[in-house]
Backbone:
């Protein structure tokens, strides 16, 4: 039986490019999960990873019993066989020159030659995406997304005619367009075995530098809540990479990794810091290392980056200096509040922030639950983080009393690591969640298009608990000074008021 103890020795003589795609993907998964056989912690600590690996080991073991290895093999690039290929391409494909110059010497691992690069070329990414469709059912819309992504990369000159992979790009484009034009319904994609082998051989020729992989993991933690366990794992990975000489002092990013390690260490040791914050100047520099932000998100990152750029600028672009007469006529984009919340708050723009505070049993949580329901019904996805009371019957009663349950309204006890799916986020309460002014500032800078509503506990005197900076850093301050009354001061509507329970029969307030 194949196990983690004997896997490396077992596969030394196997040419995975000549096996079905399932085995190639399984082998790649094992290598990545075990950090090239140097660390099996993921296998021991993660049940899902262990289950996947064990299933792969069993299938590979069964395959090898039926097809024993007759001797060591080397990966040979193959010729094309599809009828659409030109006649001259029937000679063996030569190894392509990498688009990006290798920054470390070529390395050898399990008889495979590859170069370390800072970024995998776009062409290689499209080849991966192309062969991954083999055997899968795809709709006409699926193929159109692929074609559009390919065309966009060509227009943006991320893929050029001078590319050493231009023939592969032209082949994929031709096959995709012809298939798309002939499709009338969803179909199962079938890609020729020789094309798969050729593409896999090219894919395996380049690997991302270990130091760059560590940098990407570091960037992915930026602005995330409560990721100290992940920060510790990343620190361990950095130390292992240094110990195993995967990253040496001669690496061009060695000093940068030292700085990252120090930042992670400070974050892990600081008990009051809930969110890892990377300074914007540092973050810009790290993204420069990766070449573009789409590296982090994979092949379809282009669409995601465009969406992020659009939502990060919720109002019209305004030059640094302009005439006051022109500025007077600028049309700012607002959310379009109506009814009682327009009377209370006004009509805010995207990415607004609100502070709500009041003594217990006065109605501030009822107000916020009702406000969350209004936003979910009319303006987008809402997350209500109920740390104060938790997901219990009290919160359920408030949802029922205000009749605000809605498909766009989500509830949680803790802040999820990724707030991207939500347009409005409620923290009930900031004090219970242990968030500092720095934490809130980090969240707002990392999610500029999101709106945050902060609920605060109060002192016996009725003042909110926390530093004055909390009040200064928000657009709207809502106080509940007496039972059922909300009063507001803010930039959108000074002096607004609202009766919280006006639509309810009397019941005990929050």
Residues:
């Amino acid at each position: 039986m194949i196990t983690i103890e004997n896997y490396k020795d077992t596969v030394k003589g196997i040419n995975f490019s000549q096996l079905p795609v399932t085995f190639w993907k399984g082998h790649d998964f094992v290598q990545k999960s075990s950090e090239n056989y140097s660390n099996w912690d993921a296998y021991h600590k993660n049940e899902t990873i262990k289950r996947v690996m064990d299933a792969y080991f069993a299938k590979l073991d069964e395959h090898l019993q039926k097809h024993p290895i007759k001797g060591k093999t080397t990966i040979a690039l193959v010729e094309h066989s599809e009828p659409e290929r030109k006649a001259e391409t029937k000679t063996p494909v030569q190894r392509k020159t990498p688009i990006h110059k290798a920054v470390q010497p070529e390395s050898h691992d399990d008889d495979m030659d590859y170069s370390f690069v800072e970024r995998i070329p776009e062409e290689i990414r499209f080849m991966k995406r192309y062969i991954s469709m083999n055997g899968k059912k795809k709709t006409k819309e699926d193929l159109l997304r692929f074609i559009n992504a390919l065309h966009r990369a060509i227009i943006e000159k991320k893929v050029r005619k001078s590319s050493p992979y231009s023939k592969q790009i032209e082949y994929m484009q031709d096959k995709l367009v012809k298939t798309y034009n002939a499709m009338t319904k969803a179909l199962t994609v079938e890609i020729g075995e020789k094309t798969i082998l050729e593409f896999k051989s090219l894919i395996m020729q380049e690997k991302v530098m270990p130091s760059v992989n560590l940098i990407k993991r570091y960037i992915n933690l930026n602005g995330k809540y409560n990721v100290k366990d992940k920060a510790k794992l990343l620190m361990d990975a950095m130390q292992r990479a240094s110990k195993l000489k995967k990253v040496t002092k001669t690496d061009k990013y060695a000093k940068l990794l030292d700085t990252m390690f120090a930042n992670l260490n400070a974050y892990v040791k600081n008990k009051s810091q809930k969110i890892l914050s990377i300074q914007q100047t540092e973050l810009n520099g790290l993204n420069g290392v990766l070449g573009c932000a789409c590296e982090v998100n994979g092949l379809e990152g282009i669409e995601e980056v465009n969406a992020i750029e659009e939502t990060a600028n919720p109002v019209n672009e305004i030059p640094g200096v302009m005439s006051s007469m022109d500025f007077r006529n600028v049309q700012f984009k607002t959310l379009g509040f109506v009814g009682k919340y327009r009377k209370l708050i006004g009509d805010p723009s995207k990415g607004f922030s609100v502070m709500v505070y009041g003594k217990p049993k006065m109605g501030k949580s009822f107000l916020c639950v009702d406000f969350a329901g209004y936003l979910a019904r009319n303006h987008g996805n809402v997350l209500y983080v109920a740390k104060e009371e938790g997901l219990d019957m009290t919160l359920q009663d408030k949802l029922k009393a205000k009749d605000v349950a809605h498909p766009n309204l989500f509830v949680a006890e803790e802040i999820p690591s990724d707030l991207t799916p939500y347009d409005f986020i409620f923290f009930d309460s900031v004090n219970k969640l242990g968030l500092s002014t720095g934490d809130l500032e980090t969240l707002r800078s990392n999610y500029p298009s999101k709106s945050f509503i902060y609920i605060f506990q109060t002192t016996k005197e009725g003042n909110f608990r926390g530093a004055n900076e909390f009040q200064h850093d928000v657009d709207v301050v809502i106080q509940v000074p007496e039972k059922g009354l909300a009063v507001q001061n803010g930039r959108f509507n000074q002096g607004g008021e609202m009766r919280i329970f006006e639509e309810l029969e009397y019941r005990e307030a929050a």
Observations:
- The chain has four domains: 7-66, 115-207, 211-311, 339-499.
